[in-house]
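Need exo-alpha-sialidase's 3D structure for a figure. Predict it.
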Amino acid sequence: MKKNLFLSIIFSFCVILQSVASDTVFVRETQIPVLIERQDNVLFMLRLNAKESRVLDEVVLNFGKDVNVADIQSVKLYYSGTEARQNNGKNFFAPVSYISSHTPGKTLAANPSYSVHKSQVDNPKRKVTLKADQKLFSGINYFWISLQMKLGASLLDKVSVDIVTVKVDGKAALVHSVSSENIAHRVGVGVRHAGDDGSAAFRIPGLVTTNKGTLLGVYDVRYNSSVDLQEHVDVGLSRSVDGGKSWEKMRLPLAFGETGDLPAAQNGVGDPSILVDTKTNTVWVVAAWTHGMGNQRAWWSSYPGMDMNHTAQLVLSKSTDDGKTWSKPINITEQVKDPSWYFLLQGPGRGITMQDGTLVFPIQFID
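Structure prediction for exo-alpha-sialidase:
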């Protein structure tokens, strides 16, 4: 009897082994917002080291019960080839960035040079099967799953989803997740993308809500590249009156053009901080203006002194109409800078109004 039981256990174990694919699929889930305007958002990245496996057949997903699937436009599966040999053993989950964060015109969708579109399900139900039928490269293979929301999707949506099954060579593969459990992806809007308004990059954001509930976001408008001052940089502002669903055309609260007959790239102003005076609803933006200095980094090119030809200037602009229009620059360098300091500038981001009405911006300096 014991012998028969032992043989039955061995037989059952062998049947289980035969029903499971030989290679493990490793999965990493992203933890970033899903942007409504993008045709592709990276949701999952999959890595399969094909030692014995030949074909990845399909991937099955299941959206959480609280997900509003009616707001989802499509779910897609991409194959992204293999890994460079010198990276073997490093356990990467992608051979390259699938969607550029900085190349104008390529920030909204998968770059077809890097990914092969294998499958797509439009207007998905809660359970989604993505067919692949992808022949596997001997060694590392990368796949990724993309999510596209409908343009009218709510910013209050959250997306939770699990990979239920990955089939390889007709069998369910072992799936090992390296991510946290119960990830919920928020839905958002990308206010600025590389290439918008002719700018190469937008950096250093700050965000406030006015007394009227208006959202005001400030940032560097870096026209020529993503590098910092000294360069052609203005302070940009985006304004939303509907809780961030839509944003008005960009404004420039601070821009110095060709002041002093120098090129715009030697009149940069940036690293903004924004503040709402909650007593009056006046909005203030502070930034560093760097005049001259050639085209090297201002951190090293600003020197002791007070005038604009020697040291960076601390400038303000204010709005008294809820961020619609902005004053001419207000230079407060003489009021706050020690002449011996090399560089005085704000701490980027936002300031606060204290209970007694005092306005506070973060400040830093090099002495």
